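so my prof wants the structure for this chain in the tokens format not the other one, which i didnt know existed until like an hour ago. anyway here's the sequence
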Amino acid sequence: MIGCDNPQPAFVIGVVRDSSIRAVGEPAQPHLYRRFGAPDAGALVAVLLDTTIDPARLTDTVRRTLLDLAPGIRVYTVQPLSVHVARSFGQLQWITSILIGFGVLALLLAAVGLYGAIAYRVSLHTREIGLRMALGATRLNVFRGVVGSALAIVVVGVAIGEMLTTVLTGIVASVQENVGATPVFVHVIVGLIWIAIGVTASYVPAARAARLDPSVALRDE
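here's what i got, hopefully its the right format
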């Protein structure tokens, strides 16, 4: 039986899984699909046709089919289903773009901060670097040492960040549906990005340290 006030018998021809059809992030709910008839035409807002051919080619066919059910119906807009879906994600895409912008800004600030920290560290250890070079350390050894110290900072930061991300994702998933664990390849990509930023940010201070004159560095105050 279908309906609450005036239940009517219905013949079930199939069962479909629960689905989300109204909004992004909506939990899947059971829905009842029934045959479209003339009494439903007055309340109809839109008809969505999922097809593999150009939707414009179906305009006349759809219009004739609807007119056969209820004369006077007009078809105003015909557009691909992908366009309709994309519009439903418009707000989410805008928010995502803002978050991506903040993420890129955070990466730039992190790179600048790491560059400043490594440059300051090199300035503090100028005499030590000069002494090492006077005792036989090559410029390549100095370069590798500076870059290695920067990468050590980055690796520790990435490890702490990944652990916090895992914990926070689990907390969010426990209170919000449709939130799952982050794929492993995403963690790997993020780690590689930060390592690349670490190498890039430390290159100039490392190259500057490798070019130090030992006699000048030993006299540095």
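also thought this was worth mentioning. DSSP finds seven helices and no strands in the chain.
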